[in-house]
Amino acid sequence: MNERESPAVARTLLVDIGNTNLKWAWLAEGGLSLVSVASHREQPVSELSELHWREEPRPERVLVANVAARRLEAELREWLHKNWQLEAEIFRSSHQALGVTSAYTKPEQLGVDRWLTLIAAHHGIPSPVCIVDCGTAITLDVMDESGRHLGGLILPGFELMRKSLLENTWIPRETGEQAGGLFARDTASAIAAAGAHAASALVERVLDRSSLELGRRAQLVLTGSDAPKLQAVLPEPCLIEPDLVMKGLALVAMEWQ
């Protein structure tokens, strides 16, 4: 995907509060830095902020996207105010932004991470897209080349599928990963393979159905930490964009100057 070149921008800290992880990157005139990741389920956001940012020069702005509990956002706001005397700019989902129009009847219900992937894809891929974000949850969103969002789907991520099955059955608690192929020969592989192929089948169904409305097959784009697991079982060619949410947030930061 072609990245938009950064104009002269104020040094900005971009923060993505996900269901499991806190992710951040720095945006400046040189462009977007590498994305850093830390689990906020193991440490409070305030402690993570202190650990990772206390030695950083004070940015001019902090732009935040949050799909997790509002208390995590409040922790971040408090740290920013105390340490840098900054107010966080919170980006929320809306009906329209940066050329993208949401299909949701209540646009605020669309996860801001999904909204940002749509924005990033619209500015980088000149064709219809099917975006699959593989994280704690797996989300699918389809958008035409004009930026019109057709809608999307949500299902549990691979680890949630596994945990749900093991916590509600007497299946032995064995660990392991899919060993390749559709038919597994041990319990752990059977669980892993089923989750991966279930997601793959849904992706294929979405691509088939959406092509009727779009008039052509959408470009499949995978993002999120578990994207390689899904790619391994997909018969469909795809692009992997691991930092699509952050790229969308960077575009918003440049637009909001």
Structural key phrases:
257 residues; five-stranded mixed sheet; disordered N terminus; single chain; 13 strands; alpha/beta; six-stranded mixed sheet
Whole-number mean pLDDT: 92
- Give me the count of strands: 13
Structural class: alpha/beta
* N to C succession of SSEs: EEEEHEHEEEHEEEHHEHEH
Low-confidence stretches: 1-6
Rg estimate, integer Å: 19 Å
Strand residue content: 15-25%
Concise account of the structure shown:
The protein has seven helices and 13 strands. The protein is of the alpha/beta class and 257 residues long.
Structure description:
There is one protein chain. By secondary structure, this protein is of the alpha/beta class. The protein is built from seven helices and 13 strands. The strands form three sheets. Strands 1, 2, 3, 4, 5 and 6 form a six-stranded mixed sheet that branches. A hairpin with a 3-residue loop joins strand 1 (12-17) and strand 2. Helix 1 packs parallel to helix 2, helix 3 (112-124) crosses helix 7 (244-255) and helix 4 (158-167) packs across helix 5. It is globular. Mean pLDDT is 92; it is low at 1-6.
What is the fold's blueprint, element by element?
Blueprint: E1 12-17, E2 21-28, E3 31-32, E4 36-39, H1 45-53, E5 61-66, H2 70-84, E6 89-90, E7 96-97, E8 100-101, H3 112-124, E9 129-134, E10 137-143, E11 149-156, H4 158-167, H5 187-214, E12 219-223, H6 227-231, E13 239-240, H7 244-255
Parallel strand pairs: 1-5, 5-6, 9-12, 12-13
Antiparallel strand pairs: 1-2, 2-3, 2-4, 7-8, 9-10, 10-11
Helix pairs in contact: 1-2, 3-7, 4-5
